[in-house]
Specification:
It is found in: Membrane. The protein is an alpha/beta fold. It is built from eight helices and nine strands. The chain is globular and about 45 Å long.
Length: about 200
């Protein structure tokens, strides 16, 4: 047990980047075998991924639960239908978990067993899952150390104010202090305009 009564299972004995795939395989198999049918989706993210749960729920609401699909930030190399950024996090439907867990190899495996990648772009065509922080996505430089993103991104990469959807779900490579900052900005600060608008709607 860890923290507030949350159960934790050790996927690997040694913690390093070479074990990422083994941890992912373990997680998918564990979800399929230990939780059975009570869940609709499995969400995979790193411990330095900030998740805006309300926007995740908005994305999933209304999607068909009886389809084999994975949803996230789509990259294009290596797999014909593309694959999803692990750092930005992704969602796997229960039916997809059932299929993948019995053929475990996520992008190549998903394609091999007929799991469809569902685009997570919003109505304006903007990305909701992000492999970097808000700052890095906003100020992305094609000559900088993260230049590879343009080659990998499945869709045309946008920067500046079009880097991120208003309904963004995840940001990756977020340190502990940054997590608190995101939380403060998202949930503690209220603009006068929005508060007055809310108060008026309540009358």
């Amino acid at each position: 047990m860890y923290g507030c009564g949350l159960s934790v299972s050790a996927a690997v004995s040694t913690e390093n980047r070479t074990q990422l795939w083994n941890k992912t395989k373990f997680s998918v198999i564990y979800a399929a075998t230990q939780y059975g049918r009570p869940f609709d989706y499995l969400f995979k993210a790193d411990d330095d991924t900030y998740v805006i749960v309300e926007n995740l729920r908005k994305l999933l609401h209304g999607l068909p639960k009886n389809q084999s699909m994975i949803i996230g930030r789509r990259f294009k190399p290596f797999v014909q239908q593309g694959y999803l950024s692990g750092g930005a996090g992704y969602v796997i439907s229960r039916m997809a978990v059932d299929k993948i867990a019995h053929d475990v190899q996520i992008g190549q495996c998903a394609q091999a067993v007929g799991v469809t990648i569902v685009d997570s772009l919003d109505a304006k065509g903007l990305e909701r899952f992000h492999p970097f922080s808000v700052f890095d996505m906003f100020s992305w430089d094609e000559n900088g150390p993260k230049s590879w993103l343009k080659l990998y991104n499945y869709h045309e990469l946008s920067v500046g104010q079009r880097c991120c959807s208003n309904y963004s779900i995840t940001f990756h490579q977020i340190g502990p202090s940054e997590m608190f900052t995101y939380d403060f900005l998202l949930y503690r600060i209220h603009t006068v305009f929005n508060k007055e608008e809310h108060d008026l709607s309540e009358k």
